[in-house]
Design a protein that fits this description.
Protein name: YbaK/aminoacyl-tRNA synthetase-associated domain-containing protein
CATH architecture: Alpha-Beta Complex
CATH class: Alpha Beta
Distance between the termini: 33 Å
GO molecular function: aminoacyl-tRNA deacylase activity
Order of helices and strands: EHEHEEHEHEHEEHE
Mean pLDDT: 96
CATH superfamily: YbaK/aminoacyl-tRNA synthetase-associated domain
Strand order of the largest sheet: 5-3-4-6-9
InterPro entries: YbaK/aa-tRNA-synt-asso_dom_sf (IPR036754), YbaK/aa-tRNA-synth-assoc-dom (IPR007214)
Radius of gyration: 15 Å
Low-confidence stretches: none
Number of domains: 1
Number of strands: 9
Length: 179
């Protein structure tokens, strides 16, 4: 059975690749846990977490944001996708900085994030991100019964048990990632 919320029509994500970005569809097609992922169509003007939570009566703690952070060390750039609940914030200046071992971490500029992920801003998701990027997951994300994440496009979201986010390829569960 696929996850759902009242007021949203859940469809099996594997059966609806047209509702997700191409790299997301490709990643879902090869991920064994993808059978437990739903996709829901939403108004693209409501793709931002707070707007969607208000419009669809969803608690902020079910929203999981994918925050992209980059920095350099000795000329080498390091990028990480940080998964944190929407009611928390990634600890970029301490925990993320230490984990990716850079001097000055910063959010990946929107244009770069969109281009390099091949996803729309406001829909970037951990499923289907470029392989060299680290995937850091706050443990509170794993406790969410039904998590709402991006689908790679603004007109839909993915629903899945939060525990599955810790099973994504390359996922690193990090205590203290968010505060």
């Amino acid at each position: 059975m696929i996850p759902s919320f009242p007021g949203l029509t859940s469809l099996p994500a594997l059966d609806h690749p047209e509702l997700v970005a191409p790299p997301v569809a490709a990643a879902l097609a090869t991920w064994p846990a993808a059978a437990g992922v739903a996709v829901v169509e939403i108004d693209p003007d409501l793709a931002d977490t707070a707007a969607m939570s208000a419009a669809y009566d969803l608690p902020m703690e079910v929203g999981v944001n994918c925050v992209l952070v980059a920095g350099k060390r000795e000329g080498e750039e390091r990028v990480a996708a940080c998964l944190v609940r929407a009611d928390t914030r990634a600890d970029v200046n301490h925990t993320v900085k230490r984990l990716i071992d850079v001097r000055k971490p910063s959010f990946l500029p929107m244009e770069r994030a969109v281009t390099e992920s091949a996803m729309e801003y406001g829909g970037i998701t951990p499923i289907g991100l470029p392989a060299p990027w680290r995937l850091l997951v706050d443990p509170r994300v794993l406790d969410v019964d039904v998590a709402v994440i991006g689908s790679g496009v603004r007109r839909s979201k993915l629903l899945l048990p939060g525990a599955l986010l810790g099973e994504l390829p390359g996922a690193e569960v990090v205590e203290g990632l968010a505060g």
